[in-house]
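*** Query protein ***
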Amino acid sequence: MNSAVNAFTGQPWRHGVRDALPLLGGYIPVAISFGLIAIQAGFSTWEAVVISTVMYAGASQFLFVAMFASGAPLWLIIIMTLLINARHVVYGPNIAPWVPRGRSWPLLMHGLTDQVFALALVRLPQLEQHQRQGWFTGAMLIAWFSWIGGTALGAVAGEELTRRWPLLAEVMPFALPALFLLLIIPKFVSRPWIISLSATLAIALLLKLNGLVNAAIPLAAGCGMLLYYAVDAGSKHRPAARRSTDG
């Protein structure tokens, strides 16, 4: 722990950039896919880039483009986008204890994606309080700019890239799921995490196989979260009960 903290002395934003660099392997291919899909849906290159800059919401962007192109009403597009991004209601309270007070944090939270959140949840507790904002700024900016750049590349040259290398079109959709897998593998180190993550994966798979594709992720995530807290509370209760019996 001390060595990790000492490594960030000096310019923590650079280390934020370094820690977030592996995320680009998932961000850029998916952003290229979005840029290409946005162009195919009738958006201009600049419109696609603006969506990635302002919305910056991954799956919500694909939904937005698809619903807008199909002529869905604006109110329905907004509601569906908010529902997909409701997971940030969970992210906020979990990251808040490690975020120092400051006026710039609301702006920095624009860069709080799923992957940046997972990375920050591990790294921020290892840093001194005065280093956390710099680290988070570096991490979120490199992720954000890679997403914008990937979108621009997909909008300008995505069709040519997939025509020249057809396999690329098949591989790109798997980049983000593979990135998520790499982020959760290190969590398989304790009993609550092993049980809850395994159950989440199993429930999501069962729901998908039974045709409940849209409900699979939120239901599985909710069940996994409840299971984690139940197992964690049980493991804390048992030592207390044992001490009471021994006494």
About this structure: The two ends are 35 Å apart (CA to CA). DSSP finds 14 helices and no strands in the chain.
